[in-house]
Amino acid sequence: MSKPLFIHQFQNIYPLSIHSINNITVCVLKSDRHDVLLIEGDNDLGFKGVLKQVSGFSYIEAPLSHANANTLRSHFPFTKPIPVLRKQRSFGLGDRLGIAGEGHLEVFRNVDAFPVLAQQSMRELTLTERTYEDVLDAASFAAFKFGYHDGFGADGDHLKKMEDIERVLNIGYTMITLDCSDYIKNDVMQMTDSEIEAKVKLPKELIDRYLSNPFEIEGATLRFSAMDLKRAYYVYSDAISYTKKVYETFFKNHQYNANLELSIDETMTPTKPEEHFYVANELKLAGVVLDTLAPRFCGEFQKGVDYIGDIKQFERELKIHAAIANHFDYKLSIHSGSDKFSIFTLIGKHTKGRFHIKTAGTNWLEAVRLVAIQNPALYREVHAYALESFAEAKKLYHVTTDLAKIPWLSTLRDEDLPKLFEQNDARQLIHITYGAILTAKNSDGSLRFKTRLYDLWRHHSQSYKNMLQQHIGRHVDMLYKGFKS
């Protein structure tokens, strides 16, 4: 695309951001502190900004505000999220900072998976003091700025309450991850078979449905015992009822152009294949159509580190979970997928390339690793504060971090600091303390780290893009290896 004349008056225009509508050019200018929209002429497109002139040309300079994001989405449909879970492959990209878009998009230009650029949970928003509008706007501006026209999703991640689901859908999110953990009875872990036997009375229709004959699914046989069924009924019946309520309220009549993912992974015990089948079958009989389901797999999917557990057992159960998902015509979803390199190829293989993977904290870790590379002194401050904040942060995340295994900073040279991100305990320390780091205040109320961190990330944006392109690209490459080789 040749540059319109007025754009020649500026340096630092993002070249892929130059778009035209109604013979009016809109683009993004990179400035020292904040990017801004430039709109040719006196702006009859509705963007809110300041009318300026340069070399006889009139233009509007407009901030990347929520109001202008809404206007952008109204004129350029590729900046609006779309439902992606019915696509063959999709990949959630939790960008806690709002600056990872360029690196993410460089990965997904070259593959046929659809990125979910906007993906945040209520917990993440609370800890970072952002809003769902902020997250969606960052994704839309990234798609515009870097000329990505292939479609991206937006996920209201791990939502529990009806009012939150409604609000996020009304903002324009195209996917809800329904977290049913409040309705899943984890006390079953402490109950003996005899206690279950005394407590749970099965409805006759369930006995007839599940105990008469085994279920054959893609060569696997699922056979319920009476105790299997009683435990599944006890643990999941309330979650099934709540899922039905959410589906009928928001999805049944296509009130919103959005997908529904069910998360049953936030539990204390792994989801047995029989339990997965039970939940899926009961929901299907209730008329609920899922687009993805996330079981709680065996082993541990801790934050920011590789899979912990018996890989052979994981593969055996993964194969059955994938078959169940295929049987009920939804994709298998793998949560806490960041850095699970030892099992990605297995996931690609046994899902036959039909999957949804969620990552989040690994993008934050790469950003902080960049700090360790470019400003060791600042990293040392951040690391020390993370140690102070760890005990409180751990209340919100399940990790098995051993702080004693992390080297003392005083023993490390500056050039050794980035190597901390190759050590699991150090990774988890930084991973879960992001909220404390980003919101820490000085005694005068000013931000202790956030302003300096964002200034560094902005100054080294190309390095961050390259790091994400390599790191997230490795995730994608290993997933594709499983079904492409």
Give an overview in words.
The chain has 485 residues and is of the alpha/beta class. It folds into three domains: 5-75, no CATH class; 78-362 and 472-484, TIM Barrel (Alpha-Beta Barrel); 372-462, no CATH class. The chain has 17 helices and 15 strands. The strands form three sheets. The chain has an eight-stranded parallel beta barrel with strand order 6-7-8-9-12-13-14-15, surrounded by seven helices. A five-stranded antiparallel sheet has the order 1-2-3-5-4, with no helix packed on it. It has a two-stranded antiparallel ribbon with strand order 10-11. The longest helix has 25 residues, at 226-250. The protein is globular.
Largest sheet report: 8 strands, parallel, barrel
Distance between the termini: 37 Å
Question: What is the CATH superfamily of the largest domain?
Answer: Aldolase class I
- The CATH class name of the largest domain reads Alpha Beta
Radius of gyration: 24 Å
Instruction: Name the strands of the widest sheet in spatial order.
Output: 6-7-8-9-12-13-14-15
Mean pLDDT equals 96
Reported CATH architecture of the largest domain: Alpha-Beta Barrel
Topology:
Layout (H helix, E strand, L loop, with lengths): L18 E3 L2 E6 L6 E5 L9 E5 L2 E7 L2 H10 L13 E5 L7 H8 L5 E8 H7 L3 H14 L7 E7 L2 H10 L3 E5 L13 H7 L4 H7 L4 E3 L2 E3 L3 H25 L8 E5 L9 H13 L6 E3 L16 H17 L3 E4 L6 H10 L4 E5 L1 H14 L1 H18 L30 H9 L1 H6 L10 H10 L1 H24 L1
Parallel strand pairs: 6-7, 6-15, 7-8, 8-9, 9-12, 12-13, 13-14, 14-15
Antiparallel strand pairs: 1-2, 2-3, 3-5, 4-5, 10-11
